[in-house]
Specification:
Length: about 290
């Protein structure tokens, strides 16, 4: 069998089973290049379970944050159940993956190809872990926050261990000076984002199509209210404005003090410091 033909068969077997390159290579060699026999070979050894598992839904898992020198990465790794998410091997894999995500600055495509400490690629170790745990495992998303003129803060809710949990948030802040007061605010703001789930920082950043759809829903709800068109329009505007306020970070009620909004806290701190929220992300497992 030629080298190119051998590689083509490995590729086809990987596509059919979801099993790693090394194991497909062995199967093809052992079975003389016969694809059907190679699939049987893998099934007997439990590897081809992975291919079937990948058809299932994975909406549990872990959120991991890694931080060094004011740089932060955040990643979501999914499995099917909370039981698997707390499995020691899954925890260790997720923690190691989080470190690699940080090194690669949140580049998901390169992350999947990256070699881990055992010499296997991330993709291959995902397949190996599927075979061991017996659940679908996927790397869903990741992000990276650099330290260019900004301070980055994170929060992981109900952490299973440091920086690993089911819900995490990262926020990036610019300030004229980073004293302890600003650092305390940054940590609290990350906690606020995790709890309040804003969509954007400001109203102007909200998606116009989403606002149009929300307005349609509000109007439909009021159609059969018996009220006049003028009143319905007025109520619709009020409800849409409330939606905007509740879903934009600076306009949300500050979780540390319900009498204030986030922008009020920023204004108070801004008397001595200029503060700008650059960006944020909030990851909740399966959301």
């Amino acid at each position: 069998m030629s080298s190119s033909s051998h590689l083509d068969k490995i590729k086809k077997l990987r596509e059919l089973t979801g099993v790693g390159f090394g194991d497909c290579n062995i199967a093809i060699k052992e079975c003389g290049g016969d694809i059907e026999e190679s699939i049987k070979y893998l099934r007997i050894r439990g590897f081809s379970k992975a291919g079937k598992k990948m058809e299932r839904v994975a909406n549990d898992g872990l959120i991991c944050v890694h931080e060094e020198n004011n740089k932060l990465s955040i990643i979501e790794i999914n499995c099917e159940t909370d039981f698997a998410a707390k499995n020691l091997e899954f925890l260790n894999f997720s923690e190691n993956l989080s470190k690699l995500c940080f090194e690669l600055k949140g580049d998901l495509n390169n992350l999947k190809k990256k070699k881990m400490k055992d010499g296997n690629s991330v993709d291959d170790n995902v397949i190996n872990l599927i075979s061991k745990i017996g659940e679908k495992i996927t790397i869903r998303r990741c992000n990276f926050f650099d330290n260019n003129k900004y301070m980055n803060f994170s929060y992981v809710h109900a952490a299973l261990k440091k920086n690993i949990g089911k819900l995490g948030a990262v926020v990036s802040i610019k300030s004229t000076k980073f004293n302890q007061q600003i650092k305390d605010f940054g940590h609290k703001l990350a906690m606020h984002i995790a709890a309040s789930n804003p969509l954007t920082i400001e109203v102007s950043q909200l998606d116009k199509k989403m606002l149009e759809k929300e307005n349609e829903i509000i109007s439909e709800e009021l159609k059969n209210s018996g009220k006049s068109d003028n009143i319905i329009e007025k109520i619709s505007r009020g409800k849409l404005e409330k939606f905007k306020q509740e879903n934009t970070l600076i306009n949300q009620i500050w979780i540390m003090d319900p009498k204030k909004k986030v922008k009020d806290v920023i204004a108070e701190l801004g008397k001595e410091n200029s503060i700008t929220i650059k960006d944020f992300v909030r990851y909740k497992v399966g959301e």
